[in-house]
């Protein structure tokens, strides 16, 4: 069973989803790869949703730079490897898709890595917004490029204090 809640954020409303095993998704309005709630159950009291909501509030308040909510990500083994590697990008830092492909051990697969990053279901917590084009361009973000820019600016201001 997938449980969900909705919460406000400085970037607009978020839909947060979890199973009993961990966080399954964080979606912005008009999220590119969101397929709908289906038979999900609204349960803002679910312990993983409460933990995720609290940590997201702390993140947006500037008092949290990393997350420790358990994850229950559904994807191919390749996607899982790409997403796990995203968790190693430090708060306030960025890397290129090519660098990320290197880190995943697939140096010639930057496009495939980019596609997997684009399917990351847990925006913000699994920090796909920290990956940029090779020329530093803000490219590809399922939640919208404006939100990617805002997240990068937000982290940059706090990381370099």
Give the key terms:
alpha/beta; four-stranded mixed β-sheet; 5 helices
Structure description:
This protein is α/β, with parallel strands linked by helices and 161 residues long. The protein is built from five helices and six strands. Strands 3-2-1-4 form a four-stranded mixed beta sheet. The protein is globular. The model has no long low-confidence stretch (mean pLDDT 92).
Helix content: 25-40%
Q: Please indicate the percent range of residues in DSSP E strands (runs of 2 or more).
A: 5-15%
State the helix count.
5
Amino-to-carboxy terminus distance: 42 Å
Radius of gyration: 15 Å
Average pLDDT number: 92
Number of strands: 6
Outline the secondary-structure elements.
Blueprint: E1 3-7, E2 14-18, E3 23-28, E4 41-42, H1 47-61, H2 77-86, E5 95-96, H3 97-104, H4 110-118, E6 131-132, H5 145-159
Parallel strand pairs: 1-4, 5-6
Antiparallel strand pairs: 1-2, 2-3
Helix pairs in contact: 2-3, 3-4
Task: Describe what is shown at a glance.
The chain has five helices and six strands.
């Amino acid at each position: 069973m997938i449980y969900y809640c909705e919460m406000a954020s400085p970037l607009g409303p978020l839909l947060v989803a979890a199973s009993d095993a961990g966080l399954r998704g964080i979606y912005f309005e008009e999220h590119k790869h969101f397929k709908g709630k289906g038979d999900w159950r609204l349960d803002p009291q679910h312990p993983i949703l409460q933990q995720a909501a609290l940590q997201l509030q702390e993140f947006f308040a500037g008092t949290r730079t990393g997350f420790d909510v358990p994850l229950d990500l559904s994807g191919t083994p390749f996607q899982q490897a790409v997403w796990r590697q995203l968790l190693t990008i430090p708060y306030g830092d960025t890397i290129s898709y090519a660098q990320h492909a290197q880190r995943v051990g697939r140096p010639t697969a930057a496009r495939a890595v980019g596609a997997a990053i684009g399917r990351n279901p847990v925006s913000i917590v699994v920090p796909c917004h920290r990956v940029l084009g090779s020329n530093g361009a803000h490219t590809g973000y399922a939640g919208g490029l404006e939100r990617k820019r805002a997240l990068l600016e937000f982290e940059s201001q706090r990381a370099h204090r």
